[in-house]
Amino acid sequence: MKVPNVHDNQWGPQDLSAPAPRTLRKVQARSGLVLEDVQTGWVGAVVRLEKSGGMHIVELADRREKIRAFPLGFGFLLEGEPVELVAPTVAVAPSRQRTASGSVKVADVRAKVAKASRIWVEGKHDAELVEKVWGDDLRVEGIVVEPLRGIDDLNAAVAAFAPGPHRRLGILVDHLVPGSKESRIVANLMQAPGVRGHVLVVGHPYVDVWQAIRPAVLGIPAWPVIPRGVEWKKGILQAFGWPHSTAEDVGLGWQRLLSRVNSYADLEASLLGRVEEVIDFLTAPVS
Length: 287
Hints:
Oligomer: single chain
Number of domains: 3
Order of helices and strands: EEEEEEEEHEHEHEHHHH
């Protein structure tokens, strides 16, 4: 059974006895066009369009000039009307120089002294990926990314960090899906004293952050499915035909994958949105 996707041209429950759904109006992604992404509720104007790994990516800038990227196609509203967003006949030129994350690049600005607030990720590979794409933004904001080496002792780690109004914590968790071990750990954490309002935990659905790299960027149709009982990363490397026996093999394999990531357009939208959400949380003014 196919899992419905917000970017498919299917809206709501499907009734085989009902008339076929109408074809959505095609709208060209021209600069300045204001759209709403159905899945996230993000509203912004088109500022850039680019093609990466065979897929068109459109950038929408909100009124604060925050940028988020979305795959071109279905899943957008124009003045409340569902539309199919298509590439314009004339390319949308970027109006300003951008960082790897798609943010407006700020020239001649030194990195800020690190704030007390932090971004925690589960491991070294997560930290390297976040740094490669969002590093410029984080240095401007003075935010440091730190690897956790897993979240089994998350409550104790957060308690030791002692979060507060000027000491916020954003945590990115792998495989944060309903019913998972990770979801239970996070639910327990959010009941702890002093956490709410000062700690934000977000997650992506992937077994490992490796899967947040879009398959097309690697020249494959989809990530290999690894059987239960096989160590996932080693199974992935074996499926690629790469060395996979040792920890060094895993590290070198990851560097090969990471080298294919040049910007936000090479990552899945489900990771992009979560990292942007954490950065917004950590940089929001203290009320």
